Structure formats: structure tokens, C-alpha cells
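Q: Given only this backbone (569 positions), what sequence would you predict?
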């Protein structure tokens, strides 16, 4: 399998794509640095203590106060006395106005502030320094037991007194000297943070994690990465220097993108990002997956779609579920789904089949660097998964709630909107002493309210007892109606009609005439134009001369076809 890391670095935004065999599996976005909070260390002030929640709000200088749970609070230096935490009350451990040093572990999302801990960590290339605890841990991704024992022995040897270390996956195979270099760098950083914490205002930022280039190369570049592409010259030189410092043999894997075509387009990443934002994902065999994200959980549904199989139903179901399992694991990483995830595979009656699908899913999910727990199938046959939430999902980063449907994914039908407008028009007419009203309406809704041959408008006029002129206006919402003028029919007719006899207009032919297929139908501000001889030009822009104008529609003749050939009048 080929693994690549592609950097797209622009002013205000850095994007990093991780590819496996050309397929996007992870997208990291950093907008200007201020949006990223995870890893930052602050000197904050306790704003509120909430005994009922066993938590506290911490002012760290952000728009929203950070949230500190009692379980994330270090009771004493180096973890001493932690055994009594279960019986302790947060009000006995923290006081309002108290200074406190915290680190962000989860970014602020929506109306929730950042989540913080007092258990601090500083990440290096091979090690993570933990100044407030006293133990050594080894990455679970290092599976060789002899190597785990060797690395633990090295870590114990270089560990600063009273502090802890975590050995990272990248440490596999490194020497004691490389460990010492990493530890010394992290210790110097910790001393600077301590020095800064003793002076300056409260709240204040004590440490900001490195930029996206450094973080990704530090955390993701391993011997398994075949190629790194950077699209900015200065960043390319920095990347080469960084790689030289911890993997000199791999410096030739860093490449500079110099073409005029954006790097994400060259590698087909932009199109894959767009696909990852869609609700429905089609699979190679014609089946598909549906993703529904809510505040509480994410529901993933698998459907056979166009795939009918070639043998029997059970084999079709199992094969579809296996293909879906691989893609779901990729999409979870790519979309950065977190929290509770429920997967509804196609029903499998055989327990052995379920375990086969589960094994495929777990194997693919094991590639994910974010901690996830697969809890198994429920009695209803739904697969339960939880995944740690560190940063916003791809949807939260790149999209916003639709103002029309407010996140439901559904909008009111045009017919329902039309009925709402009718009720508003009836109310407006009842409050007017004039015999005629000129109303501004969204062009789409004007067309619906007028109806075929003005039939709907006639009914509305009978209900109101007034002559109504509906004028389509671009820019009005679908449910907006504006009283433009009122008076007598004679006063309003010229104002209401968008065209008069003799006018020459550019009109898009949208439909074939219902009763005369030789004619086409176009609209000007929602006002219907019956165009003689345009039945075969649907989808084309044509020049039309108005031959007759009525209150609800006009007739016109073609003056010129789209290829510039004159049409006889």
C-alpha cells in the first residue's frame, strides 16, 4: 500500500491530506492557528465551581470558558493522593478566583467551550513528556513484546525524576541517544513554560502547539510514508530540515509541488472532500451507505442499492456488508466522526457472518490514530462504536446549518409554501380598502400562485374580492410577500406587467407547452411567456418578441435561434 501526505498551505488556512493508495483517509485543517486549541497550555482562572456537576469553568481568555471535570483534575503534584478523588468534592479542590494551569484536550465546538485537564503533556518526536505524573507507558501500536521491553527500559533510563514518559509509535527501533535528545528538548520546553507561568497576566497562553507542518511531520511521518508533497517553497525547505533531524535517510521523500494546477486537484483530493460531505456514499458494487449526523450520535445505514449479487441472497448480503465495513472505517477517519456511532448493516441471521464483517471493520479501523472502541452488535443487529472527539468533524469544519431547514435536511414543499402565501395574501387584502393590489413575490412562487392559465390566481381573487397582480422579484425568500402598490386595476396594470406588446426579450425556454408541444414556455420574473415554435428549444436562451400581453401570461414569437439564424416571423 502506498501512503502519501499532501500539504496545501495557503495564507489563513493549511490543509493536509493523508492518502492510502490514492484514496483520502484523513483531512487535517488548520485555519490561521487561532482556531486550533488542542495541545495549548494556559494559565487560567477558576470562574465557577459546580458541585452538582463535579466540574468547574475556567477562564483561559477564550470567548467561552473552558470546562474542567474533577476526573481531569490533578489533586496533588505528581498524582499523589489521587485515590481519594472519587470521594472528593470539586468545591474542596478548587476555589473561585484561583489560578490554575490547564491544557486543552478537546476544542470548543458549537456552544461548548474547550475541555481542559491539569495533567499536562508535551509531545516530541519519539516521546511524550508528562511533568505531573510518574510512570512510563508504551504505544499500543508497538506490538513486538521484545521491542516494547527494550523501549521501556530506555525510557526508564532517561526519564526525569518525578516525571512520566509515553513512548510513541515512531520510537520503534531508535537508540538511547535519540531518546535523550528528545527528553532534553522537552525538558527545556517545560522549563520555559514554568518560567512564563510565574509572571504575566491571568488568563494567558503559556504554550501553543506547533504549526500544522511541524505537527503532521512529527506525528504522522514514519517509515511507512512513501511520499510527502508540499506546495509552498519555504515550507518545503522547513520540511526537509525537519525530516533531516529525525529521519535523515528519508529526506528524499519530501517533494515540492511546482505546477500551476493546485496540488489538491492534481491528486484528486478536492473531489474526494466534496464526496465526504455528501450524505450518501456509493460503493464499488452499486450498494451505498447513508450517513446521518446528529448532536447525540451518528447513524450509518448500509443498503444494497443497485447490487443484486450473482449467487444467493446470503452471499450478496455478506459481501455488501464487508465492502461497506471497509468504506465506513475510512469514512469515520475522513469525516472525523466521534462520540456514539451506530452502524446498521444489512441484516445477517448467521452469527458467523456477523463476526466476519466485524473482523473486516476492526482491521480497517485499527489504522485510525484516534482511539475508538467497537462494542459489538446489539440485540437488534446494530453495531455500536465509540470514538474519541478531539476536534470538530469535517462537516462541522466545512459546513453550516441550512437557514431554511435549520439542519433537518428537509425544506417545506413549494405547495405548502404557496398555501402559506395565500393565507398571508388573504390577510393583507382584508386590511386594504383598495380594489387592486400589486404584490412582490419570489418568481418561483409567483408562477405557482398564478397557476396554469391563471387558474390559481382566479381562485385567490375570488377569496379576497380584489384584483391581484403578482410580480416576481429576485432576491425575495420563498415565503416572502411584499405589498408594492395598491389602487385600481387601471392604476396597477402597467406597473404589474413585466412586458408589453412589442417588447423584445431574452427568455430561457423551460418547458414544452402542455397543450401545444410545438410551443415552449418561458418565464420573466415568474410571468409566463408562451413562445410560438420553441417546443424543441427547452433549456436554451432565445430572443422573443411579445405579441400579446395579458394579466397572467404573454404570447411571443421567436426572433432568432441560439445559433444566430433568423426565424421567419
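A: Predicted residues:
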Amino acid at each position: 500500500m502506498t501512503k502519501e501526505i499532501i500539504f496545501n498551505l495557503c495564507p489563513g488556512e493549511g490543509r493536509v491530506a493523508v492518502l492510502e493508495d490514492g484514496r483520502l483517509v484523513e483531512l487535517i485543517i488548520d485555519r490561521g492557528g487561532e482556531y486550533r486549541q488542542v495541545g495549548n497550555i494556559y494559565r487560567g482562572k477558576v470562574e465557577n465551581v459546580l458541585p452538582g456537576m463535579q466540574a468547574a469553568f475556567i477562564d483561559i481568555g477564550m470567548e467561552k470558558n473552558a470546562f474542567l471535570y474533577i476526573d481531569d483534575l490533578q489533586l496533588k503534584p505528581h498524582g499523589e493522593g489521587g485515590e481519594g478523588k472519587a470521594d472528593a468534592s470539586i468545591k474542596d479542590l478548587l476555589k473561585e478566583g484561583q489560578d490554575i494551569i490547564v491544557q486543552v484536550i478537546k476544542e470548543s465546538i458549537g456552544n461548548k467551550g474547550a475541555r481542559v485537564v491539569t495533567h499536562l503533556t508535551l509531545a516530541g518526536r519519539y516521546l511524550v513528556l508528562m511533568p505531573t505524573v510518574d510512570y512510563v507507558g508504551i504505544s499500543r501500536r508497538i506490538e513486538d513484546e521484545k521491542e516494547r521491553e527494550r523501549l521501556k527500559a530506555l525510557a526508564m533510563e532517561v526519564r526525569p525524576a518525578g516525571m512520566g514518559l509515553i513512548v510513541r509509535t515512531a520510537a520503534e527501533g531508535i537508540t538511547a541517544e535519540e531518546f535523550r535528545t528528545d527528553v532534553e528538548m522537552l525538558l527545556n520546553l517545560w522549563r520555559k513554560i514554568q518560567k512564563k507561568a510565574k509572571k504575566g497576566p491571568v488568563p494567558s497562553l503559556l504554550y501553543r502547539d506547533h504549526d500544522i507542518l511541524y505537527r503532521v511531520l512529527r506525528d504522522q511521518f514514519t517509515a511507512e510514508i512513501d511520499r510527502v508533497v508540499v506546495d509552498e517553497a519555504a515550507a518545503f525547505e522547513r520540511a526537509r530540515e525537519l525530516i533531516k533531524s529525525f529521519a535523515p535517510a528519508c529526506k528524499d521523500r519530501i517533494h515540492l509541488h511546482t505546477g500551476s494546477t493546485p496540488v489538491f486537484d492534481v491528486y484528486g483530493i478536492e473531489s474526494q472532500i466534496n464526496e465526504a460531505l455528501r450524505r450518501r456514499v456509493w460503493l464499488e458494487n452499486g450498494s451505498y451507505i447513508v450517513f446521518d449526523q446528529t448532536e447525540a450520535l451518528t447513524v450509518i445505514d448500509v443498503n444494497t442499492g443497485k447490487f443484486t449479487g450473482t449467487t444467493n441472497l446470503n452471499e450478496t448480503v455478506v459481501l455488501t456488508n464487508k465492502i461497506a465495513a471497509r468504506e465506513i472505517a475510512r469514512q469515520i477517519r475522513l469525516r472525523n466522526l466521534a462520540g456514539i456511532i451506530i452502524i446498521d448493516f444489512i441484516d445477517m441471521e448467521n452469527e458467523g457472518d456477523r463476526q466476519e464483517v466485524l473482523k473486516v471493520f476492526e482491521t480497517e479501523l485499527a489504522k485510525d490514530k484516534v482511539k475508538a472502541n467497537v462494542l459489538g452488535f446489539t440485540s437488534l443487529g446494530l453495531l455500536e462504536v465509540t470514538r474519541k472527539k478531539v476536534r470538530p468533524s469535517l462537516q462541522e469544519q466545512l459546513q453550516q446549518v441550512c437557514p431554511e431547514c435549520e439542519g433537518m435536511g428537509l425544506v417545506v414543499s413549494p405547495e405548502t409554501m404557496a398555501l402559506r402565501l395565500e393565507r398571508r395574501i388573504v390577510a393583507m387584502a382584508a386590511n386594504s380598502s383598495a380594489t387592486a393590489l400589486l404584490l412582490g413575490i419570489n418568481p418561483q412562487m409567483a408562477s405557482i400562485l398564478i397557476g396554469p392559465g391563471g387558474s390559481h390566481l382566479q381562485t385567490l381573487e375570488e377569496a379576497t374580492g380584489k384584483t391581484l397582480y403578482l410580480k416576481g422579484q429576485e432576491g425575495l425568500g420563498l415565503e416572502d410577500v411584499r405589498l408594492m402598490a395598491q389602487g385600481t386595476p387601471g392604476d396597477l396594470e402597467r406597473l404589474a406587467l413585466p412586458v408589453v406588446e412589442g417588447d423584445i426579450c431574452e427568455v430561457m425556454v423551460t418547458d414544452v407547452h402542455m397543450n401545444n408541444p410545438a410551443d415552449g414556455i418561458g418565464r420573466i420574473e415568474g410571468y409566463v411567456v408562451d413562445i410560438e415554435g420553441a417546443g424543441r428549444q427547452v433549456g436554451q436562451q432565445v430572443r422573443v418578441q411579445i405579441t400579446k400581453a395579458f394579466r397572467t401570461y404573454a404570447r411571443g414569437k421567436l426572433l432568432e435561434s441560439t445559433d444566430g439564424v433568423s426565424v421567419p416571423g
